[in-house]
Amino acid sequence: MWVAAAPRIADKTYVPTAQTSPPAAKPNARPRAAKNGRRGWKFYVALAGALTLVLFCGLVSYFYVSFSRMIDARMHGEFQRTDPRIFARPFTVRRGQRITLLQTIDRLNELGYAQRPRAQMPGEFAIGRDALAVVPRAGERRGQTVRLVYAASKTGSGGLINIELFTKKQSLDSLALDAPLITALVSGEGREKRRDVPLAAIPSHMVRAVVAIEDRRFYDHPGIDIIGTTRAVLTNILGTRKYLSGGSTITQQLVRNTFLTQEKSLKRKFTEWFMSVALERRLTKDQILELYLNDVWLGQRGSFAIHGVPEAARLFFAKDVSNLNLVEAATIAGVIQAPPRYSPFTNPDRAKERRNVVLHAMQETGFISPDAEERAAREPVQIVARALESEAPYFVDYVSQELQERSKATGAVDVYTTLDLQLQRIAQDAMRDGLTRVDEILARRKRRNPQAALMAIDPRTGEILAMVGGRSYNQSQYNRAVSARRQPGSVFKPFVYLAAFERAQADGRTDITPATVVLDEPTAFTFNQQTWSPSNYDNEYDGPITLRRALALSRNIATIKVAESTGYDTVAALWKRVGIGTPPRPYPSIALGVFEASPFEIASAYTIFPNGGTLRPLRAISRIVNGGKDLPIDLPAPKTVARRDTTFLVTNMMRSVLNEGTGAAARANGFTVDGAGKSGTTNDLRDAWFVGFTPELLTVVWVGLDDNQALGLSGSQAALPIWTQFMTRALAGHGNVSFETPEGISFVDIDRDTGKLATPSCPRVYREAFLVGTEPTEMCALHHF
Fold first, then answer.
1. What is the residue-wise DSSP string for 81-121?
2. 361, 216 Cβ separation under 8 angstroms
3. Catalytic residue among 276, 322, 343, 490
């Protein structure tokens, strides 16, 4: 039994061994499972990390490529100018002109001329004692050194007495320089003023001032300054300085201002970092700095956003950026952080404090010495308050509108305008001084400050030489010179007399001449079964008066009688041929200018007088150049409104307005050249006008209130002083040019009071103009030996 049992024990022992072999093989089960697609957690972690890295690199590459393309497209537009530039007419000085040494320096700054100890290259000038040397970069004297000599004056007010070539000692009558850039316009949601210049034209202390205060590690970082950002955060938290430090680099600011919005979000910040790095890879440091200095926002002036240090140099200091000194450069650099807060116009104390911070930053950076910082910090903040007004902002607005309406020019065009910047300065000064006097008068009467407009044109061509649309563009951008339509009042009277002479000539009458006598007395006029009883200004009446005297003294009754005898419809028809303003109705009141027209339209209408009956439409643009080629400009053609001889009669009559009539104060205040004009005052002294002209310059001045309430002053009181100051200064140094007498005109000596042929005993004799065949034949019977 025992022996037989042994195999069963062995089998039993064997079977369990065979049965338990699979459990022994369990450690090998995992490798076999891996071959079936199962992985461990480490594998998935590694895989997720790899995929994340690939995705991150892909996103970075995508954004880098996308931002690089965006930057390339934008930078192509930045380096290839896309915005129009607007130029004034070439700056010209004449021997004998009443332009001072300081004014000439201002004009050279406008042209971008650089001041040097010695003028040698085109675009340079040097200042001497009562003289300056300039090397023109345009015009007939390009590259030649020209010396301008001024009358000695302690105040710098002496006029230009000589112009001579420096090498040949040859005297010149005049010197024409460049066409000054007024501004470059950027279209968009807002209005911008900027003038892009190369980095080489920006002085080193201007560049250093910006780098020192905005990004002193600019030349060391790749677009993002980790060290500077960290330092700024710690400085602001710990409060170790009395001003906040900025963390954005110049590159980041350029990216934010050029490509992004001012939104404060994490997404925008990361985008800004990406694009800053991309920008640094696409452009050099100098290119980035040039773009930044030409684009950075430096505040608002009127409706314009000011961009770039070159434009700020013009508006703050009336200088070209190349001529900025250290103090001025630091002032501009200080404004960058917060233009509204540090504007030298509105917050001069804060501007000075911030400027000194910039100076200290420049000293810390090693750009200037401690002594230079101390001297500069003591300097006051000196700005040119009228710089923006002097740049003719109303005119720029008008040209922008003209470009849209009359030309298909878009993009990078150069627009050469008719504006004379010297006359624009004179117009602005005359407007300011005249309104100051008017303000003083109205203050005593407890009235509000008025507005005013001035249009100065060359009547021979219709070119607009100066335009002032209001007393302050900063306060109001409404252009009253173009858009304010008011009653012209008495400035319309010359057209009444012109209509009378035209009608008389057409009818073959010889009894309507400047010497014709009309009875000036209170009169009631009946028209359409209605009676109208107007009066003269201040209820003054002259009894028998010649048409010349009636116009010179602006007598209402006499003028209405002339309109009545001519025919109100005839007067209205003449004005309709002129095509200006609202068509007046043929009522008696037409003689007193009871309809509406703007100063711009009145200036256009008055061109018929110095042009012998031909109206010259006004124009502001002389050339538009695109890619070196002139573009066509749609301009209306001149048109004939009246005869040359009849028009001359009225022009000759208007000479008496200045010599003995309502404009005589102009002669008393220094206006001496041959000229003609007409004052204008509307009902209830609501609007004040004066229009006057010489053969080469015609100027319209309007003064009134925007709400169309009564001003309370006549044209001779409010508008004439502005006109006189402007015309006297504008024509200083010009020769006395007389009006051309056309064929068919004869001159006869007449008695001023009776209009009859003068006798030796007549006390007041005037040499009157007549159409041939209409001269008086009767001798004066009023005065005897």
1. --S-EEE-SPPEEETT----HHHHHHHHHHTTPEE-SS--S
2. yes
3. 490
**What SS3 state is found at 217?**
coil
Gap between the Cα atoms of 484 and 93, Å rounded: 34
610-642 confidence digits (pLDDT tens): 999 999 999 999 999 887 788 888 888 999 999
Note the pLDDT tens digit of each residue in 581-611.
Answer: 778 889 999 999 989 999 999 999 999 999 9
Beta-ladder partners of 184: 85, 194
- What number of residues does the chain have? 785
pLDDT of the residue at 30: 47
Tokens 């965006």 sit at which residue? 70
Please answer whether residues 463 and 418 qualify as being in contact, where contact means their C-beta atoms are separated by less than 8 angstroms. Answer: yes
Give yes or no for residue 52 having a pLDDT over 80: no
**How many whole angstroms separate alpha carbon 147 and alpha carbon 163?**
6
Q: Chain centroid to CA 276: how far?
A: 35
**Mean predicted confidence (pLDDT) in 540-548:** 95
pLDDT (tens digit per residue) in 468-513:
999 988 788 899 999 999 999 999 999 999 999 999 999 999 999 9
Beta strands 304-307; 191-194: pairing state: parallel
Q: What is the pLDDT of residue 766?
A: 93
Task: Kindly report the number of other CB atoms within 10 A of residue 206's CB atom.
Answer: 24
Q: What angle do CA 762, 767, 771 make, to 5 degrees?
A: 125
Cα distances (Å, whole numbers) of residue 563 to 155, 591, 640:
53, 6, 22
Beta strands in 449-491, from DSSP E residues, in sequence order? 451-458, 463-468
What is the secondary structure of 282-327 as a DSSP string?
HS-HHHHHHHHHHH-EEEEETTEEEESHHHHHHHHHSS-GGG--HH
- The set of residues, in sequence order, having a beta carbon less than 8 Å from that of 613 and lying 6+ positions away, is 640, 641, 642, 643, 644, 646, 647
Q: How many of the other CB atoms lie within 10 Å of CB of 395?
A: 26
Q: Find out whether 724 and 666 touch, Cβ atoms under 8 Å.
A: yes
Q: Which residue has the tokens 């607007």?
A: 86
Quick check: is 768 catalytic? no
Say what angle helices 309-317 and 285-295 make with each other, to 10 degrees: 40
Q: Residue 756 corresponds to which amino acid?
A: K
pLDDT at 649: 98
Residue type, 732: A
DSSP 3-state of 759: coil
19 pLDDT band, cuts 50/70/90, is very low
Q: What is the DSSP letter of 702?
A: E
pLDDT in the model for residue 628: 79
Q: Are 334 and 342 in contact (CB under 8 A)?
A: yes
Q: How many other C-beta atoms can be found within 10 angstroms of the C-beta atom of residue 263?
A: 10
Give, for 351, the enclosing helix (H) or strand (E).
helix 348-365
12-16, 332-336, 684-688 — which is least confidently predicted?
12-16
740 is catalytic: no
Of 164, 192, 214, 311, which residue is the catalytic one?
214
Pair of tokens at residue 712: 């309370």
Average pLDDT over residues 283-302: 86
Q: Write down the pLDDT at residue 74.
A: 56
CA angle centred on 23, ends 19 and 27, rounded to 5°: 150
Residue type (1 letter), 177: L
